[in-house]
Amino acid sequence: MNLANQITIFRILLIPVFIGLVIYYGDSARGEHPDETLRLLAAAVFGIAAISDAIDGWIARRFDQRTRLGAILDPLADKLLMLSAIILLSFTAWRQHFPLWFPVLVIGRDLLSIGGAFLIDHFAGKFQIHTHWSGKVATFAQMAAILWILLDLAPSLLIWPTVFAGSFTALSGFINLADGIRQLKAAGHD
Questions:
Q1: Do 103 and 52 fall into the same domain?
Q2: What are 45-58's pLDDT values in tens digits?
Q3: 133-150 and 36-62 are packed helices; what angle lies between their axes, rounded to 10 degrees?
Q4: Nearest CA among 12, 3, 19, 131 for reference residue 55
């Protein structure tokens, strides 16, 4: 197993640690004295996981360590980390939390993308993933909004990174939908 895949597996192993820290901090926030160490540890674990995503991608490209396993595990690790963070930071007792529309948008976009990929694969024979800059901006913006909450930055301004992330999440979803329709039409299925 190459170094890029080992880093990806490390990121996957960080996810339950992150989830535990977020839940325990949320429980402590119900009382008068939230355990800020748990919040800071959750932010640190999320930050390490986010940085490891960039590092394993760079290593895979730079040292030609791209593998089929990495192509499966890397996006899976990203989705598990992002979705667990967005869901937990929407429904736990943190001082700041995402508005309900945000996890609905992110989860809805991901479910439609996955469902669409299966349909296209079934009808067109092969689904081709075409990455677009809007998806990368959406992921970066989601990470920034998550870190905004984890670091407990200006609560009155949380709506702005959330709206920014939500806008690019929606845009990338529409671009994925248009790409899927093009692939179906190219295969002769209108």
A1: no
A2: 999 999 999 999 89
A3: 160
A4: 3
Q: Tell me how far apart the alpha carbons of residues 174 and 142 are, in angstroms, rounded to a whole number.
A: 17
**Same domain as 24, residue 109:** no
**Alpha carbon 105 to chain centroid, angstroms:** 12
| Domain end (from 65, 80, 95) | 95
User: Which of 105, 99, 147, 127 has the alpha carbon at shortest distance from 189?
Assistant: 127
Q: What is the pLDDT of residues 91-126, one digit of tens each?
A: 999 989 999 999 999 999 999 988 888 888 777 777
Alpha carbon separation from 158 to 76, 103, 129, 151, 179 (Å, rounded): 27, 14, 32, 11, 32
The token pair that represents 103 in the structure block: 């996890």
Residues 141 and 174 in one domain: yes
Encode 150-159: b = buried (16+ Cβ within 10 Å), e = exposed: bebeeeeebe
For residue 55, give the nearest of 131, 2, 4, 1 by alpha carbon: 4
pTM listed for this prediction? 0.90
Tokens representing 6 are 């080992």
